[in-house]
Amino acid sequence: MDQKYDEIFSSLRQKIKAIISAFEQQKLAYNALLDKNREMSEKVSELEDKMKIIEKNYENLKMAKVLSTLSNDDIHDTKIQVNKIVREIDKCIALMNR
């Protein structure tokens, strides 16, 4: 009877060791995936930042192109309109301060 129990315990120990070994391997794989995920998240963040900069540069380029196609009369008229708007804003601020 003791020998039967020893065989059962021995078999059980081997299975537990195998389970622990498999768990450790899975744990290592999980940690490797976490590291890879972290790296990819950082890369995505960097690329998003670069994309925002490129989009801003593109918008600036579009604005520069529009401004470069304007004639001197258009620029003068635009300046007059901007000055009118600024004066109106100043009037509104003055009214709010009363």
Describe this structure in words.
The chain is mainly α and 98 residues long. It has helices at residues 2-69, 72-97. The model has no long low-confidence stretch (mean pLDDT 89). The protein is rod-shaped. It has one domain (2-70).
Number of helices: 2
Mean pLDDT: 89
What composes the largest sheet? none
Strand content: under 5%
How many structurally independent domains? 1
Work out the helicity level.
Answer: over 70%
- What general outline do the C-alpha atoms trace? rod-shaped
Low-confidence stretches: none
User: How many distinct beta strands?
Assistant: 0
Radius of gyration: 36 Å
Summarize the SSE layout with pairings.
Layout: H1 2-69, H2 72-97
List keywords for this structure.
98 residues, 0% strand, mainly alpha
Short description:
The protein is mainly α and 98 residues long. The chain has helices spanning 2-69, 72-97. The chain has two helices and no strands.
